[in-house]
Amino acid sequence: MEKIKSWLLDVDEKNIIKRSTFWNLIASLLNSFMTAILLFFVTWINGVDKAGMFTIASAFAYQCLSLGNFGARNYHASDVKFEYSYSEYFYVRMISGVLMYSLLLWYTFGQGYTLEKALIVLAFGIFKSVDAFEDLIHGEFQRHNRLDIGCILQSFRYLASIIVFVLVLLITKSIILSCIIVSIVTFILLIVWNKPLIKKYFSKKKKFNKTKVKKLFLICLPICLGNAVNMYIVNCPKYMIDSVMASKFQTYFGIIFMPVFIINLLSTVIYRPYVKSLGDNWQDKDYKGFFKIVLRQVFIIVALTLLVIVFGYIIGLQIMGIIYGVKLNKYMLAFILLLVGGGLNSLASYFSVVLTAARAQNKLFIGYAITFIASFLISLSLVKSYGIDGASYVYVILNLITVVLFTIFMMIRYMQDRKVKKNG
């Protein structure tokens, strides 16, 4: 164990960003492909109807996780002046954890599902909830410029989770039992792998400071609400399909939606190591350096999206149809629209990071709230009228609205800050 600990900790400072980028890529790829791999085995072993239940369970799980994370990671990592201690982030996350599990219970028992579907939603939600507690710990690693440590541990935990889930599913053919066992295993791994490193970077928990915890809670609240609404926007098509279409269509939509996660998570790979740099540049009023990072990431997201669209159009849809053993040719329009929407969603997610680094996180909720209202006006009618194509229209429109709003908010924030700097 000491050798592993030494390998994690003893790294030349010049190589930390390179190692962070590499392992962030590995962790993001595993996270991206995890749902695809699990859905493949569920579809293969349990059929398209059960796979549809698993798909909506996954959507609910990520919705709950957005509440558990509480939008604190980017603020935590960019808190370069250590305005708040780790203990204050810890207490805020404990509060958000209670909210996360409360929402999960509502999704489980408040939708009128059959017992089997409800238990699948609950079990998979518990499995993904572990990510929220890991995110807290790794946020502190990142604040100490050691994102690499968190990404390495996360990579191995993801890999172990996939292996355990698949093995249990192959043996028992039970989605519920597979989720329960993998939840236990992944929680144990979280504790065992992170505990030896805590003393190096973490101060002892201080006495509960109600004033500071409340202040931090209120700072992160608009980010959390914005992220929660963003996750609703991402999952809105799935929710509408769940409301008006059979479970098998949820499976088809879930399959063609998979490459969207690849765009989102590969984009995250590029910008996550530079969140701290964004915070540093904004604090130092280095606007040129700040926007250089922003424009580079926007270019990467656009290029990545175009690359995936071309590959998807030529051969991607056919490959997924062969892998999952279902016919997807008639969903080409929906597939391309989802890829476009995936690029827009990646831009929106990144702009939320940019606004947070610029300490304009209160604008996030405003933008997402407007988009949320738009979703109520258009979503159900489009899905009822056009089915899976309609769900794809919804995804593109909502993410386009968000990108436009966040771009406007960032420009306003920049002009305000420059004015303050000039007058000061």
How would you concisely characterize the structure shown here?
This protein is mainly alpha-helical and 424 residues long.
Describe the structure.
With 424 residues, the chain is mostly helical. The protein has one domain. It is 87% helix and 0% strand. Helix 3 (48-69) packs antiparallel against helix 9 (210-244), helix 5 runs antiparallel to helix 6 and helix 6 (115-143) packs parallel to helix 8 (175-201). It is globular, with a radius of gyration of 21 Å. The model has no long low-confidence stretch (mean pLDDT 88).
Number of discrete domains? 1
| Individual helix count | 14
The total count of strands amounts to 0
> What assembly state would you assign to the polypeptide chains in this entry?
single chain
Sketch the topology as an H/E string, one letter per element: HHHHHHHHHHHHHH
Question: Residue share in helices?
Answer: over 70%
pLDDT averaged over residues: 88
Cα shape: globular
Which percent band covers the strand fraction?
under 5%
- Helix/strand-derived class? mainly alpha
